[in-house]
Specification:
Number of helices: 4
Helix content: 25-40%
Shape: globular
Structural class: alpha/beta
Order of helices and strands: EEEEHEHHH
Number of strands: 5
Largest sheet: 5 strands, mixed
Strand order of the largest sheet: 1-2-5-3-4
Distance between the termini: 37 Å
Strand content: 15-25%
Length: 146
């Protein structure tokens, strides 16, 4: 059985329910000593490189919104559901780890009960102060609870 994320580790976001999800920028190499995810969702405009853990690619161009919003809702719901298992180490990542990743984390926070109008601020406070970079990403989060 695996061990979940250490909530003090960089990028790990604790949701109000206690679930832990790690956000990360793929631009930075993983430290060889760093704990690996058991499941990763990669928000990129192109297919991500192969890694030795289970992954899902969500087509999401830089500074934009997901190409398929219905699929995005399903994938982000799966992230939220899998994070309920304390042995899972679920991560969400894009190239820089702020815009798309922050937007996805804010949507996951909405699924966890954070009001949509407060989700961007929640993620900026708990994950990265510059998360959710564009006005349309903020608007997407605001509508995610509908």
């Amino acid at each position: 059985m695996g061990v979940g994320w250490d909530e003090r580790a960089p990028g790990v976001l604790r949701l109000p329910s206690g679930r832990l999800v790690r956000g990360r920028g793929l631009r930075a190499e993983l430290d060889p000593e760093e704990v690996r995810p058991t499941y990763g969702v990669y928000l990129l405009g192109h297919e991500p490189p192969e890694v030795p853990w289970e992954t899902r690619w969500l087509k999401w161009p830089d500074f934009r919104l997901p190409a398929d919003k219905d699929l995005a809702r399903r994938v982000l719901t799966e992230v939220w559901e899998r994070a309920a298992d304390p042995a899972e180490r679920v991560e969400v990542a894009c190239r820089g780890g702020r815009g798309r990743t922050g937007t996805a984390l804010a949507c996951i926070a909405v699924l966890d009960g954070v009001p949509a109008a407060e989700a961007v601020e929640f993620v900026r406070r708990a994950y990265d102060s510059r998360a959710v970079e564009t006005p349309w990403q903020r608007s997407y989060v605001g509508r995610f609870g509908d």
